[in-house]
Amino acid sequence: MTYNGIPSLPVHAGSYPVSATVVQPSYTGSATGTLTIAPAPQSINFAALAPVHRGDPAFALTGSASSGLALSYGSSDPSVATVSGGMVTIVGVGTTTITASQAGNADVLPATPVPQTLTVDPTAATVSLGNLSQTYTGAPLAATVVTNPLGLAVSVTYNGSTSAPVHAGSYAVIATVTDPGFSGSQSGTLSINQAGQTISFAALAPATVGAAPRTMTATASSGLAVSYASSNPAVATVSGNVATIVGAGTTNITASQNGNGDFLAATPVVQPLVVNAPASVPSLPSRGALIALAGLLAVAGALALARGRARAR
Questions:
Q1: Cβ(252)–Cβ(232) under 8 Å?
Q2: What b-and-e string marks burial along 183-198, b requiring 16 or more CB atoms within 10 Å of the CB?
Q3: How far out from the chain centre does Cα 81 lie?
Q4: Element containing residue 65 per DSSP (H, E)
Q5: Hey, which end of the chain has fewer CB within 10 Å, N or C?
Q6: One-character DSSP codes across 127-166
């Protein structure tokens, strides 16, 4: 028996003329025909791809074909990953479809391509928050943010607002990396404490009963209004920042500032106010006293005159 004139059995796909001749002694006979060997089917084994991160090293694809033939690969999005010679190189964040193919040959049919999704996640970054306890200054106060790797772009919110807070209170801080290719966030609490304040209240000069009301000019370092009180309303009363003299004596005028949401209460400052009585003025004798005095003087003069005449005799 021969195949294309060759006694060896064919291996590869194709059509082969077959000739069979009886060689047994005492017998004769022959036949011809065609042997057709069809290309064999094949399949691809290509497992799902695990997610990777931007910045990861290139890695090899490990699919295989049942035929034993080499696979070829392609990436649907070269901005995410490229493929060369079965090696995948990470380019950017996103997803791409890696397709394994085997085109077949003369003996093997092409395989049905097998796609697998490759997800490239951002590179993990760490975020640290600092300067989370500050004191009210009247200006916006922000937390400090440090990333690793250093210098990544971040967005920071305070109670959901991107504006740094000004007033005393507690604020939920969330810092999120926005740099393309990186991910990471950190949360904390920024505490802005109330600021202290002091009162400047100079000594009070003495006053005199009957003096005009006096305006007091104490100031608080916070810029908030100062209130006043008198310890002895019989000496002086206070309304707003004006002291009204009532009577002689001493009273303590206390300057206070109770603070607000941004400032602590100030330590009160006390200054004594001395009110003197007016200087005394000699009083004039009454008309009756003057008449009586004139009478006495007239009597004394008459007596003196009488004595003088008596001596003259």
A1: yes
A2: bbebebebebebbebe
A3: 35
A4: strand 64-65
A5: C
A6: EEEE--EEE--SS----EEEEESTT--EEEEETTBSSPP-
pLDDT for 109-146, tens place per residue? 999 999 999 999 999 999 999 999 999 999 999 999 99
Cα dist from 213 to 128, 185, 202, 256, 309, whole Å:
60, 63, 17, 20, 68
Task: Render the burial of 255-292: b for 16+ CB within 10 Å, e for the rest.
Answer: bbbebeebbbebebbeeebebeeeeeeeeeeeeeeeee
pTM of the model: 0.66
- Asked if 176 and 188 count as a contact pair (C-beta separation under 8 A), the reply is no
Q: Which residues contact 178 (CB under 8 A, 6 or more apart)?
A: 153, 154, 155
- Single-letter code of the amino acid located at 234: A
β-strand partners of 237: 244
Q: CA-to-CA distance for 128 and 154, rounded, in angstroms? A: 11
| For residues 161-180, average pLDDT | 97
Query: Could you read off the pLDDT of 276-299 as tens digits, one per residue?
Result: 999 865 555 566 666 766 667 766
* Closest-CA residue to 122 (of 187, 178, 61): 178
The per-residue DSSP string of 268-303 comes to PEEEEEEEEPPPP-PPPPPHHHHHHHHHHHHHHHHH
Task: Give the span between the Cα atoms of 147 and 279, in whole angstroms.
Answer: 79
Asked if residues 170 and 141 have their Cβ atoms less than 8 Å apart, the reply is no
| Cβ count near 210 (within 10 Å) | 9
Mean pLDDT of 49-62: 95
Pairing mode, strands 185-193 and 154-158: unpaired
CA 188 to chain centre: 8
Token pair of 109, please?
């049919």
- Give dist(CA 197, CA 313) in Å, integer: 98
Residue with tokens 């005492």: 26
